[in-house]
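Here's my example:
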Amino acid sequence: MAIETPVARIEQQLRVDERLPVDVVHAERWWYPEGTEDPDDPYGIRRTSVNMCTSNAPGEVDPILGTWLMRGLPCRLVSQRAE
């Protein structure tokens, strides 16, 4: 599946867990750096790491905490299945 936010789109495997509400996605925060053939993304970080879906723009820092939003990101799931 692809996980899309306004910032980025990544790919991760989908596993349904009935303990989570149906409108919640728990994305893995780590990628598995086996390596890819892509010279622009040799370890697949840009393709698979959920950190790519967050923004680090200076104007989006929480004024109270002084950090960026890392949880509760709006997203959607898109099937990667070949049609």
Remarks:
- The two ends are 14 Å apart (CA to CA).
- Residues 45-48 form the longest helix (4 residues).
- The longest strand covers residues 2-4.
- The mean pLDDT is 85.
